[in-house]
Design a protein that fits this description.
The chain has about 575 residues and is an alpha+beta fold. It has 18 helices and 22 strands. Strands 5-4-3-6-2-1-7-8 form an eight-stranded mixed beta sheet. Strands 9-10-13-11-12 form a five-stranded mixed beta sheet, sandwiched between helices. Helix 12 crosses helix 16 and helix 12 crosses helix 17. The structure holds adenosine-5'-diphosphate and magnesium ion. The site of magnesium ion (MG) has 5 residues, from helix 2.
């Protein structure tokens, strides 16, 4: 009798077929191993690469480790500790769940796993020898080390498709970058041929982690975006001038899992509107916290795609939140003296659910030191601009004959006010404006004290402040120029600066002028009429030589043309 043509494949062939999907290149191995380390609750992960990962990949973690029994079982297909049944498959909180990464990797490499659960119990070594799982006792260790050598040496067809080690390493770097953005609370180290390529210390501040991934300059330029109702997410996005033709630098994390989702990327792009050049994507990171029951992660063997139960709501939320952030053009911000506050986890950044942070409005990035390239510049004559109108209650749209010029009204007025306050103060011309009703302002004891001792300085600045009762001062008059100021914030800050002056020192005065200008200026969000807009433009011409602030975005006619051309 001849053998039936339909046969169940041997285990090692099945594994190698699965490996075809799971292990495309060295970077996929790194991704699976790092995910395992994260699932094992490691707080420290080291990835050491030799020869682009073709020669060697070592992933070392300080996670839970495995008992001897589990260690050998982990190399069996569909062996997983992460889900037990179909119900749990519907609600996955770990990164892994398919139980096929380790057997797949082991089937296409020289594989070794060393694991242990602390110094007091023996560790285990697990290897594949002639397709058989072999386990030995090993020295104790705290966590797991997986060593993968000679990847695909037994699959020449696959090896042929791999690129030069440098290229393969760049994919690995991308994987580790993504993982490190997903989990700022974990330390990562990545080396290639003994050289450190990425080092990220654990932090609770997403911006700090962004610094190790995007570099210090770019991460500073990034602004915060946050959605606090409906679908919860938060993150950082770069200004339009940092957008690139690759969408790889826009990292999307869903419940701690880095994924690719063209629709989310497209929603972000759409939110930037015409600010973005055609085909470009801003760099950044968006961290989503979704109910695990509403996402299906089991749609792709490498788990890099996700299906959402309500995709259109998600995209609408992204579009709306990013548009709101972009609407304030936070990259044009001028507050160069305030350090951006840390961006700690808003919605849970991690699969095991960290608490949600408080809601907040987008933080403008700082400082704007003029390195935003062609989009910020000084004009010769602002007064000569043709004023077209105000947009977004924040920007003056003008035309200078060759370009569309957009000026931030708040920055423009702050700059004018700074100059006016300075000259008026120097000439003793800062006029008091008595308040109809004195305003009481809460101050601390040091500030209270100063309110009595600095009467002369306060009066020269145009303030009439009376120490009323411990912790409270009455403000009876303010300089005319500062009608708009929020006194409850301004007065304590002003007293703080005065506390540092001894006599009239120029440097402190400059700090005071800046403070007053910042508080007194017209804000974004205020509708202004044509007359005031023109006054601002003319006023800007009197402020030449003022400290350089980014106050405008300029779009050349050719650039406009390109934005609208069909290519
Ligand atoms: P999955 O991650 O889908 O469960 P894997 O093949 O990647 O499948 O891993 C199989 C099992 O081995 C995991 O479920 C886990 O229990 C164990 N394991 C793998 N890597 C580690 C590690 N670094 N630390 C502790 N346990 C691990
Ligand atoms: Mg896994």
């Amino acid at each position: 009798m001849t053998a039936s043509p339909v046969q169940i494949l041997p285990e090692d062939v099945i594994n190698r077929i699965a490996a075809g999907e799971v292990v495309e290149r060295p970077a996929s191995v790194v991704k699976e191993l790092v995910e395992n380390s994260l699932d094992a609750k490691a707080s420290n992960i080291e990835v050491h690469i030799g020869g682009g990962g073709l020669e060697e990949i070592r992933v070392l973690d300080n996670g839970s480790g495995m008992q001897p029994n589990d260690a050998s079982r982990a190399l069996l297909r569909h062996a997983t500790s992460k889900i037990r049944n179909d119900v749990e498959l519907q609600c996955i909180k770990s990164l892994g769940f398919r139980g096929e990464a380790l057997p797949s990797i082991a089937s296409v490499s020289d594989f070794e796993l060393l694991t242990g659960q602390g110094p007091d119990v023996p560790g285990s070594q697990v290897m594949l020898e002639s397709q058989e799982v072999v386990q030995r006792e090993a020295p104790p260790r705290d966590g797991t080390l997986v060593i993968v050598r000679n990847l695909f040496s037994n699959v020449p067809a696959r090896r042929k498709f791999l690129k030069a080690p440098r290229t393969e390493f760049s994919h690995i770097l991308e994987v580790v970058r993504r993982a490190s953005l997903a989990r700022p609370d974990v330390s990562f180290l990545l080396t290639h041929d003994n050289r450190t390529m990425l080092k990220a210390r654990c932090t609770d501040d997403l911006r700090a982690r962004a610094r190790s991934v995007f570099g210090s300059a770019l991460s500073k330029r990034m602004f915060e975006v946050r959605s606090t109702d409906g679908i919860l997410f938060f993150g950082l996005l770069g200004p339009p001038s940092d957008a690139t033709t690759s969408s790889k630098k826009l990292h999307i994390l869903i419940n701690g899992r880095p994924i690719r989702d063209p629709a989310i990327i497209s929603a972000v792009r759409q939110a930037y509107g015409p600010l973005l050049e055609r085909g470009k994507t801003p760099p950044g990171i968006l961290v989503f916290d979704l109910d695990p029951g509403t996402v299906d992660v089991n749609v792709h063997p490498a788990k890099t795609e996700i299906r959402f139960s309500e995709p259109s709501t998600l995209y609408r939320n992204v579009l709306h939140a990013v548009r709101t952030a972009v609407g304030t053009s936070p990259w044009l911000s001028f507050e160069s003296d305030s350090e951006t506050r840390p961006l700690t986890a808003g919605p849970a950044a991690h699969p095991d659910g960290h608490p949600s942070g408080p809601s907040s409005t987008p933080t403008p990035y700082s400082p704007a030191t003029g390195d935003t390239k062609a989009r910020s510049m000084e004009l010769e004559h602002h007064g000569g601009l043709r004023y077209l109108g105000q947009t977004a209650k924040s920007f003056l749209v003008c035309d200078d004959g060759t370009r569309l010029v957009i000026i931030d009204q708040q920055a423009a007025h702050e700059r004018i006010l700074l100059q006016t306050i300075r000259t008026h103060h120097e000439r003793g011309m800062l006029k008091h404006q008595p308040l109809l009703f004195p305003e009481s302002v809460h101050v601390d004891s040091g500030q209270y004290e100063l309110a009595t001792t600095c009467q002369t300085e306060l009066s020269a600045l145009g303030f009439d402040v009376e120490a009323a009762a411990p912790g409270v001062v009455f403000v009876r008059a303010v300089p005319q120029l500062l009608r708009r100021a929020e006194l409850s914030q301004l007065i304590p800050e002003l007293l703080d600066i005065l506390s540092q002056t001894s006599g009239q020192q120029m440097a402190y005065n400059e700090d005071i002028y800046r403070l007053l200008a910042r508080h007194g200026c017209l804000k974004r969000g205020e509708t202004i009429g044509t007359d005031l807009a023109r006054e601002l433009l003319v006023g800007l011409d009197t402020t030449r030589g003022e400290r350089s602030v980014t106050i405008m975005a300029v779009l050349g006619y050719t650039e406009l043309d390109r934005l609208f051309s069909q290519d």
